Predict the structure of Putative transposase.
Amino acid sequence: MKLRQKKILINHKRTERIYREQGLQIKTRARRKKIAAVERQPVELPENPGVVWAMDFVSDSVAHRRKLKILTVIDPVSNRSPLIHPAFSINGKEVANRLEIAKEEHGKPEYIQCDNGPEFRSKELDQWCYENGIKLVFSRPGKPTDNCHIESFNGTFRNECLNSHYFLSLKDAREKIIDWWEEYNVERPQKRLKGMTPLEYEGMLKKRKSNPTSGRM
C-alpha cells in the first residue's frame, strides 16, 4: 500500500521476482498438525463394543430463550450411549473433560468419529486424544452418512425427549435428559439388538468375546 501511495507500480509477480533476485523468502505460518487425527473416512464397524465411539452435538433451548447445547456420544456396535451432557456452552476443553469422565467409567475407545465442528477440532481435544492413544476420525465434508449412527441416535433423542419436554431451566433440562438417557440404555429393548437393551446387548458381546467357543447368536 505504501508503494502504491508513492505511485510505484507493484504486483505479486514483481514482488516474487524481487524476492528471488535478493534471495529472500516469505515466511509462511506453519499449519498446526492434528496429532490425533486420521484420514477422513468412516470407521469400519468392529464386532466388539468399546472400540469406536461416535459423537455430535444437538441444539435446543431453555424456556424458548437461551440456547441449549447437548453433547451426545454412542457406541455404534452396542447402541449404548456412554455420555450425554447438556450445557449452555461447550467448548473443546469441556468436550475433553466429559470424555475423560466417560473413559473412567466405560474405558476408552480406539477411535472417535465426529464431524468438523470447531469444538472437535480444538487443540484441547486433540491433545486429550493424543495422550490417551485415541484417534479422531473426521467425517468427510458433505458426507453425514459417515457418522450415521450418531445421527440416528440424535434423531431418536430429539423425537422422544427434546420434542416432548419444555425445559424451565438448565437443571430441569439435565434431569429430564438424563432420565431419558438412562431409560434408553437400561430399559429400552431394540429390534436391531435382538430385542435386548443396549446394556444387555453390550454385556452379551463382552461375554462372547471372553468365551469365543460359545459362537455367535
